Amino acid sequence: MLEKILLLLSLSLSVAEGLCKPGVGEAYKVRFSIKTALGDQAYPWNKNEMFLFRAALAFAMRDFTNGEEFGVSDIHPCNETQRVSFWFVVTRPKTMDLVDKGTVEMAIKKSRNRINGAFLLTDKTLEFDGIYPTLAAPVSPDTPPWLIVFGVVMGAVSVGIIALLVYPLVQRKLKKNMDADDEDSDEETGVKTAENGANDGIYNSTFSDDERFTQM
Amino acid sequence: MRLVLPNPGLDLRIPNYEDLEKMEKEDGDRPKWDNKAQYILTCVGFCVGIGNVWRFPYLCQTHGGGAFLIPYIILLVLEGLPLLLLEFGIGQRLRKGSVGVWRAINPYLTGVGIASMLVSLLIGLYYNTLIAWIMWYLFNSFQGPLPWTQCPLNDNRTGFISECQQSSTVDYYFYRVTLNASASITDSGGLQWPIVICLLAAWTVICICYIRGISTSGKAVYVTALLPYVVLAIFLIRGLTLKGAMNGVKYLFTPDVDELMNPTTWLDAGAQVFYAFSLAWGGLISFSSYNPVHNNCMQDAVILTIITGLTSIYAATVTYTVIGFRATDKYDTCISENIRMLLNGFELPEDSITASNYNAALHHLNSSNPDTVFGLDIKTCDMQKLLSEGVEGTGLAFIVFTEAITKMPGSPAWSVLFFIMLLCLGLSTLFGNIEGVVVPLKDLNLFPKKWPQEALTGVTCLVSFIICLLFAQQSGLYWVTLFDNFAGSIPLLTIGLTEMIAVVYIYGIDRFNEDIKFMIGKKPCIFWQISLRFTSPLILLVILVFYLVTQAQQELTYLVWDPDYDEFPTLASVPYPSWINVVIFVLAGIPSLVVPVYALCRLVFVRCKKKMKPEKDINQI
């Protein structure tokens, strides 16, 4: 019994190794850039991490196919390099049939964030060759902020202009009212003022320089 | 030299010294500065403009770095200083705006004032468009992340829009989102609404700052003239602490003495001095005419020259710290990208190639597997090339600087600061500009006399805004470049030269010396005598001739943003259409020709008047 199981296992392993060939058929290449992402806190790549990867991918396949019971043994990696990159293929549970590239791609796309999260990596540091991440749209608020700033500036400037135009008119009106009051009290001192005025002399601008210029 | 052209009736047209003393005592209705500081700040603001940030550093770096300061300072003293004294002195003495001053010296010279006004108007139009673009960027800086950090996505969300992908996020934001640039100047497209309302904002701000003439603009300059210095200081500190800043500063100031042998260096320095001082715009004459009669204009000229020179160097240092930072950042990105490609291509562990052993590793891999390395298409990362990338004009502010700011932590704050600084620099120059337009219009009696100053400013701003809508079209960028090249170059040189000749040989340098003696107490020394009579006019003449010769030889082409161009994102060089010659004539020819044409018309008119029966005096131009 034991020999039979061993034989089956070794057979399946050798078949699986045969299934996973880099660059051929339904194989995908995946690349990890752990040190780039995590720097000092990078974890070393070992068999346990590989196991996590296979488990994460099996989860992605289950999630996408909605129930087909993919297991860790259905993910077959090969050609692991020091870069931490390797190829892998996915087989259907309990059979050796390869799952086609399209399905694998869509499964990975659907669960990309979860797979990234399992490794504390991002779309850029955990790359699947040939699967482009769907990019998040840039955040655009409903009211463009620039309109708000523009509105504030224009509002302030308009208020300023109106204030500057209205203020002298208001002042003139107030002065007129004050003059009307003062005139009543100044009638007795009117003669005195004229005398004072005659002593100082007033510069009569009618005879100013403008008329010196030769006119065209 | 006693060469003075005959100028009959001069004494009747200008106030004599007793009149000046009397005017000084009375409170006339001519506007006055509240204090000396306002006057100096207004002049500093007028002279220190956006060109100090985005033109001077480029010239400095292309013409031999630190060595460029030698021709610059020499020409600052020989060319700029005398012309400043001339404009300050004549404005303070004759107490009129530019049209009034030239009309007083000789009625046939009124054309000089009119030319100044036309040039100020044309320059003001495109300058305010630049202000509008700066305002757009300023308004958009109040968000994080800044809108020019990301490309928009394409339809199926797998990548970015190809135009943005091929060029860069900042290029796309400037040429597509802001300007929506068409591919040629003939293809005007529609109005770009964001630009229209930014233009409205720009003209309204100018209107309110200048609404009562210098009594409002004099208060505004306390902010607009001083704030740029504060912001430059902040940027200097920030810039010096950035990685790679010293690369930029070293690149800027490394002297290359051979460049001094190149005549272009001297000519560019001369042109930069002339334009930097905003001479021949008419604004400086106007501002000086509001001074008290005994103001020391010679001292003012010297102070202004020193401040402008130092500000140019200061701004250049700040600019190049940021450029150095950006170049270093791009260089590091380039190296990292190459390392990544090598690691991926050769399946090596991550830490085996770092920035320090990159060159050794590349060499080793290239010798062992040259084919693989070739297939990877490794780009050469050249720091010098990155430092020298087209960094003048709008490209510096809206592309290079905005890109550098996105890489600084807290970028919205830096962006706001930077664009407020540019806004203040531009506004303070525009105050002088609009002074050079409104006051001549008043002197020419083109406005009814009873209109208050507010109405004059308002009408000028409104009409200018409507004309500026030309720049709000999709081809607006190309029109701005056209105006920049032609309206602001040859006419100014012609007017400047005519001014010098008019004051020295028609008004009389002896009379001018006496005026200075009356106003400040001593005659100008021998340096001023020689430079006013010979050196400065000669330098101006040489620059003008050189300009005319190069312009005549150059083929009229311009750079366009064309996504269909083969070498996109490089700007394509396209010849101008033939009708552009008419436009160039209007921009450059008409202001220059107004001077002789006006004199001629007046001659004809006066002759006709003598022949016909004497009629009522026509109070016209």
Automatic annotation (TrEMBL), chain A:
Pfam families: Collectrin (PF16959). The chain crosses the membrane at residues 146-170. The keyword Membrane applies. It is found in: Cell membrane. GO terms for biological process: positive regulation of amino acid transport. Residues 177-216 are annotated as: Disordered. It is a single-pass type I membrane protein. InterPro entries: Collectrin, Collectrin_dom. Residues 24-216 form the Collectrin-like domain. Residues 1-18 form the signal peptide. GO terms for cellular component: extracellular exosome; plasma membrane. PROSITE patterns: COLLECTRIN_LIKE. Keywords: Cell membrane, Glycoprotein, Membrane, Phosphoprotein, Signal, Transmembrane, Transmembrane helix. PANTHER family: COLLECTRIN. This is Collectrin-like domain-containing protein. It comes from Astatotilapia calliptera.
UniProtKB/TrEMBL annotation, chain B:
SUPFAM superfamilies: SNF-like. InterPro entries: Na/ntran_symport, SNS_sf. It holds the Pfam family SNF. Na(+) binds at residues 45, 48, 52, 425. Keywords: Membrane, Metal-binding, Sodium, Symport, Transmembrane, Transmembrane helix, Transport. Its main location: membrane. It comes from the Eukaryota. This is Transporter. It comes from Astatotilapia calliptera.
